[in-house]
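Notebook entry, cofactor series.
This is the third protein in the set we're modelling with a bound small molecule. For this one the ligand is zinc ion. I'm keeping the input format identical across the series so the outputs can be compared line by line later. Sequence and SMILES below, as received.
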Amino acid sequence: MVVKTVPRLNRATLEKQQRTFGVGPYIMLELHCHSQYSDGTLTPTQLVQTAAAAGVKVLALTDHDTMSGCLEAAETAQGYDLTLVPGVELSTVYRGRSMHILGFYPDGDRLEAPLRERLQGRKQRAQQMLDKLHRLGYALELPQLGEGVAPSRPHLARALLAAGYVNSWEEAFDRFLGEGKPAYVGYAKFSAEDGIALLRSCGAVPVWAHPYLFAGGPVEEVLPHLVEAGLMGVEVYHPHHRRSQQERLQQLCQQYSLLITGGTDYHGPGLGAKALNSFALPMSLLAPLKAAAAHLKFPEVG
Ligand SMILES: [Zn+2]
Ligand SMILES: [Zn+2]
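Returned structure with ligand:
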């Protein structure tokens, strides 16, 4: 799937986003987090409650390769002073390395079938890793996961820990599950370009998640290719980005006319994670994101 023509974002909107960033009382926007439907520890309801208690006003649920938690989260959000942004974090591959692409405001109906396929792929991958562990002498069963839950390595790490095969989460990755380790199985090939195109075709704004965690090349070199493929934004604020990296990403967003997003990539309490809302991101980041999503769905308007 290749995007032939990539409509550019409206420059005035972008400039407004970039100009207003850094001013005003910013409490409240959280655009990257996970529930139990992927590798988070909270249910969507608990997540929304935790976010509301932390002062979040707008929360995007971005589970890996599934939107299964969005409905519950949106319903719970109605009871709080909180708006739920439907989202997803697609697992893709770029230059042979794992790359995550966030998608905001997808049309859930259109994305459902392709995601179901992806979910099936993740289930197979988890099973292949279990088989490898079994052959290594570590028999395990995957913990019971709900229907729409995408199994991932943290689930396996938890199972290894529970079985007493390892003493820590880190040990599970260092000895078995990390890239290149004996129980590792690579992702089914789903290129970043295809992921970006899929998101756009479902009306979702594609955003490169945590670029400085990408291991397949320098951000400056990779970004232009992604932009060419239709990327519309970059996750500038992420717990793994240093301040200097955030600043560099801001510059790049300006240079390539890209939207800015951010979030704590929250997976639940007690995992050494930043608390929800700890970036206190300004609401001004939201409107351009919303406008871009609307433009993808209804290109003739505005
Ligand atoms: Zn990610
Ligand atoms: Zn994430």
